[in-house]
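Database export, one record per block. Field names are fixed; values are copied verbatim from the stored entry.
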Amino acid sequence: MLPLPPRFADLKREIANSYPDFEKRVTKAWAEIIDQLNKRTEEIAKEGSEVRRLFSRAKFHALTDASTFHKSSFRNFRALERKT
């Protein structure tokens, strides 16, 4: 992997400095993401083939952004969440 030009480090500093408590907030956000990933992993392990079938029907090629992904591909997954 090639190192990024110094302007990217400058941009990163600029972004971080523009948010109060940036490091604390980012660390908290990553902890929340990891927690959710762990929960979903447990659900997938528990549901097994039911979850795989939902993923196989997902239209990943049609995705353009996160909102489209959630709305078009995982209506059935949300139903599965409510079932458990």
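Remark 1: Residues 31-84 form one domain.
Remark 2: The longest helix spans residues 22-47.
End of record.
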